[in-house]
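By way of example, we now present a protein record of this kind:
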Amino acid sequence: MWRVVRKVVLALGIIGFLPGGGTLASLLVLGLVRVFAPPLYVIGGWLLLLTGLFLLFAESIEGDPRWCTMDEAVGMLLTLLVMGVFIGEQWSLWGLEVAGFLAFRLFDITKPLLVSCAEKAPGMIGVLADDLVAGVMAGTIISLLYLFVRVAV
């Protein structure tokens, strides 16, 4: 029974078992944040909660199974949180949220240097670390681009 519960939690219900589960998990987070428009401290709380659940439930899973999509949800939350810290209230503009989503998925899928290094950490830390690094990179780059354009215009 515990195995089934753990798998359902890590897969975010059925999302992890659908094609493109990582992208769907990221879109779910984006949609929830868009609908509920929580303050940044709530996003930070969700981030801590999901990270803790991930580490708790994923302790005995080997590798990075496709169905495990909670790490993508954590990475997307971190992208939005970083954007909120850098940009302030403007982070929740629809175009910036979509840009953050696209940048996060690009970094998570292509695994540029920092992301691939993080992925090599042992065990489930590596599974989560690559998404955390991709989230920080995506949030930082989109924020810096936004601030650069805002200053330049």
